[in-house]
Amino acid sequence: MKTTVLKFFTLSVAIFAFTNISFGQSESTATADAGANIITPISITNTQGLDFGDIVSQIDAFTVTMSASGARTDASGLTGDQSPLLSTDAGNQALFTITGEEDYKFSVTLPTSIELTATGATPMTVNNFTSNLNASNNTLTGGSVDLSVGATLNVNATQQAGAYTGTFDVTVAYE
């Protein structure tokens, strides 16, 4: 029996020794940096509204375009005094200031169309919005950029006289 106990004890010690060796663990630790970069929010401010100026109603429908650079033309391409449709009030393009994080890229989204309305009159559609900037891949050089917006006004046949108004949104976003 002593030999059996001794064999059992020897076997147990051997198993225990191998168990510690085979299940022995080593540890290793690494450290990583963490950080964040908070940037200035992008914003847009309107400094001048889009104004197509004074327009003379006609028997037939026609268009008036205000370019992003502020040039107003009728459907035939005539400007100001050359056009029987346009008075001397030349109107102006819309102007905006975009501010944000210097040297960051941003995009501009213009509306597809809007309506100008006057009390008791048929609405007029404004479409074909254009700007002096690209739709995307613009850079906030110095943290600020000026945006000019133009569009086309669709004047209906025998459009009623009145002061027509409407609003439109221009959206800017970091890319």
List the keywords.
elongated; 7-stranded antiparallel sheet; 175 residues; mainly beta; 12% helix
Short description:
By secondary structure, the chain is mainly beta. It has one helix spanning 2-22; strands at residues 43-48, 62-66, 72-74, 94-99, 105-109, 113-116, 124-131, 138-139, 144-155, 171-174.
Topology:
Elements (H helix, E strand, L loop, with lengths): L1 H21 L20 E6 L13 E5 L5 E3 L19 E6 L5 E5 L3 E4 L7 E8 L6 E2 L4 E12 L15 E4 L1
Antiparallel strand pairs: 1-4, 2-3, 2-9, 4-9, 5-8, 5-10, 6-7, 7-9
Q: Your description of this structure?
A:
This protein is mainly beta and 175 residues long. It has one domain (43-174). The protein is built from 1 helix and 10 strands, in the order H-E-E-E-E-E-E-E-E-E-E. It has one helix spanning 2-22, and strands spanning 43-48, 62-66, 72-74, 94-99, 105-109, 113-116, 124-131, 138-139, 144-155, 171-174. Strands 1, 2, 3, 4, 6, 7 and 9 form a 7-stranded antiparallel β-sheet that branches. A 3-stranded antiparallel β-sheet has the order 8-5-10, with no helix packed on it. The radius of gyration is 36 Å and the shape is elongated. The chain starts with a helix and ends with a strand. The model has no long low-confidence stretch (mean pLDDT 88).
